[in-house]
């Protein structure tokens, strides 16, 4: 942001760019409140799951006229172009994205007799590997997140997609996550906790930071957003790669490779008095020339074709970057409709109920689907 602001200032000396950073939840609340009061920012950073809500609510302006004249749009992968739209119109420009991957500690697997360079291909194989390699409570087998927030849904969706499932119907009018694929995915999570006993109930605790536990080497293996690299443990990329392995998530029998993505877009709010300048700033921020170092440092998905193909360059800065590049071909997004933030709690509650054995996966997902369908129908 700062480098783009300096460039904009150079081009337009009379322009002042004021940047404000906020924690995740506060960002959404502040944009909604300030725009409602007519005092919104010119440019807003938008989580992809807020896009539909912000577009439907008139928070963001239609950027289609800008896209139509923007040559760089041809450098954006189709999956990101499409996920910049709501009802056929563009409302944001992707800044960065990420993918869900599998990460593991090599030494415990080596000691258990496995090749630490070869990831498990199937769910059952993975469960058996980590069960043999774990030594709880000092070292647990497998990490997923199951807290009372949308991170839980986000971590669970890839397992749903791998079985051919969907979150919603194609027209977004009906819940589909309670399909056979959904029940299978949630049953596997339940089995990891209660049958194989490789995932502790601590992953449900709000007081814990499960992703930090993976980075600290307290789990043999786990699902992660991008890669979880503790630079305190491994100061260099070489150190990290020697000790930690990474691969794509395993699949169920008869399943297909799939993962999930999230990330951030930049949009222009309806309160902006200088939308042309705001658009220029957005194009500066998101340009490969400006964003490349950020993408490399954070291990993010570069949301430009010209950058994604530079695998060797990114691999030098962030190990296993080639996995990020590969995953773009089979990644999925959560539905970016206004109703998503409303029904997401029903789903993570269902996941927690199943994990606590308060309901079967089928019962829990059916209950969440019923709640979701009411929300989608405008009844709640």
Overall description:
There is one protein chain. The protein has 380 residues and is of the alpha+beta class. The chain folds into two domains: 2-97 and 262-333, Periplasmic binding protein-like II (D-Maltodextrin-Binding Protein, domain 2, 3-Layer(aba) Sandwich); 100-259 and 339-376, D-Maltodextrin-Binding Protein, domain 2 (3-Layer(aba) Sandwich), CATH 3.40.190. The chain is built from 18 helices and eleven strands. The protein has a four-stranded mixed β-sheet with strand order 6-7-5-8. A three-stranded antiparallel β-sheet has the order 1-10-4. A hairpin with a 2-residue loop joins β2 (85-86) and β3. α17 (340-355) packs antiparallel against α18. The chain is globular. The relative contact order is 0.19.
């Amino acid at each position: 942001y700062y480098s783009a602001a300096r460039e904009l200032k150079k081009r337009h000396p009379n322009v002042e760019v004021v940047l404000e950073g906020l924690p995740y939840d506060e960002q959404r609340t502040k944009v909604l409140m300030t725009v409602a009061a007519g005092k919104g920012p010119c440019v807003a950073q938008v989580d992809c799951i807020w896009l539909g809500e912000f577009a439907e609510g008139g928070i963001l302006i239609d950027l289609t006229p800008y896209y139509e004249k923007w040559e760089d749009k041809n450098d954006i992968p189709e999956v990101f172009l499409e996920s910049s739209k709501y009802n056929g119109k563009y409302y944001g420009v992707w800044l960065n994205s990420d993918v869900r991957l599998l990460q593991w500690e090599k030494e415990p697997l080596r000691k258990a007799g496995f090749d630490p360079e070869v990831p498990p291909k199937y769910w059952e194989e993975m469960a058996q590997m980590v069960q043999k390699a774990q030594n709880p409570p000092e070292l647990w087998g497998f990490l997923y997140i199951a807290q009372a927030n949308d991170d839980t849904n986000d971590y669970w969706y890839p397992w749903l997609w791998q079985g051919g499932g969907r979150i919603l119907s194609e027209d977004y009018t009906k819940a589909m996550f309670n399909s056979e694929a959904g029940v299978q995915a949630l049953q596997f999570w339940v089995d990891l906790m209660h049958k194989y006993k490789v995932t502790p109930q601590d992953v449900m605790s709000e007081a814990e930071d499960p992703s930090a536990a993976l980075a600290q080497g307290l789990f043999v293996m786990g699902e992660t957003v991008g890669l979880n690299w503790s630079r305190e443990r491994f100061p260099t990329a070489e150190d990290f790669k020697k000790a930690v392995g990474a691969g794509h998530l395993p699949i169920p029998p008869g399943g297909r490779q799939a993962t999930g993505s999230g990330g951030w877009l930049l949009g222009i709010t309806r309160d902006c008095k200088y939308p042309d300048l705001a658009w220029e700033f957005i194009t500066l921020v998101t340009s490969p020339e400006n964003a490349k170092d950020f993408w490399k440092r954070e291990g993010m998905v570069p949301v430009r074709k010209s950058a994604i193909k530079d695998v060797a360059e990114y691999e030098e800065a962030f190990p296993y970057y080639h996995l990020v590049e590969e995953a773009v071909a089979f990644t999925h997004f959560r539905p970016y409709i206004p109703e998503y933030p409303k029904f997401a709690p029903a789903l993570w509650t269902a996941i927690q109920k199943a994990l606590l054995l308060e309901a079967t996966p089928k019962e829990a997902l059916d209950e969440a689907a019923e709640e979701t369908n009411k929300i989608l129908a405008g009844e709640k």
